[in-house]
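task queued by scheduler; priority normal; single chain, no ligands, no partner chains; default sampling; output format set to structure tokens
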Amino acid sequence: MNINGIHYRTIWHKPGEPPILQIIDQRYLPHRFVIEELKTLEDAETAIRDMHVRGAPLIGSAAAYGMYLAAFPLEHDRDFDEKMNIAAKRLKFTRPTAVNLAYAVEQILGSMAKCSNNKAKIAAILQTANGITEESVEHCRLIGQHGFKLIEAIFQKKQASPSIVPHPPSAINILTHCNAGWLACIDHGTATAPIYAAYDQGIPVHVWVDETRPRNQGASLTAFELKEHGVPHTVIADNTGGHLMQHGMVDLVIVGTDRTTRTGDVANKIGTYLKALAAYDNKVPFYIGAPSSSIDWGIRDGLKEIPIEERNADEVKWISGLDKEGQMREVLLTPTESPAANYAFDVTPARLVTGLITERGICAASEGGLMELFPEKIGFNFTGS
């Protein structure tokens, strides 16, 4: 996607030796555009853990390249495999909820196992990391194409029966939560891919952008990328969505996922569950942009089996932004002595999800629905109850 008219991905490998991984450092958006260079395993760990990069597909790619950064100095090391297994554990520990990270690291380890010497293993790791990244981009593009059909159908129905709702009556009003855009997904995005596809094909869309406390990824990231692409949008406080749905001002909700069970339960940014409840109560379609890399085929019960990351309380207590002098500052919101809890994700039960938009098509949020699209997973050996 574009920033100031120039195409960027959120992560890319800079050729040369020693290897350098370049990322868009999302901590500074929307006020500053910063490209950060990662040169070591420790750099990759920090970037993932401290959310220089965030979003399930992107942290999967970052972890894969992090394995390459870890491997490169070990070409002549007798303990190559042992040290790479340690690197894998360290990267998996950085963010426990999103399954893409573990999925990518396991793919890297699998590619190593097929090689007979360290040099070949390092080459295989880079090739696999590149492959994971390109696959993610293509999956997001396909999610956009499948999701576009949903938006197109709603638009045609709306044109046939014009709404009396004033904001804006001719557009398809889509609500998002957090950032499941190209900034989270290397390119295109998951939840935003259908929006971009519809906008690019001339369908009038308007996006309600949840601010998404406590890190405000909607207000800072989703709004930024929609603005750069020219998509009409309005930033709203997190608790506004239910009101909009009650008044017929939302035609469709599309959100992303950090981990989806084989039965269709969805872990996503904290607050997603509340939007799903409001959508269900108001009969608003609620869809998930779900690449297969974010589906955990080994679990059935999202509430019992998906680990929910708890982050530093300071993310709740403090907020950062641009002051009137144009300086980035952090401001304390709460009494200094007040404790805060910071659960990063919640789980939306499958019964509240209208459908999953995957790279292979749209299906019901159920084991049967997923198996229709991914029949090769029918016999998958899961450990859930």
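post-processing summary
- DSSP finds 13 helices and 18 strands in the chain.
- Residues 2-134 form a domain with the Four Helix Bundle (Hemerythrin (Met), subunit A) fold (CATH 1.20.120.420).
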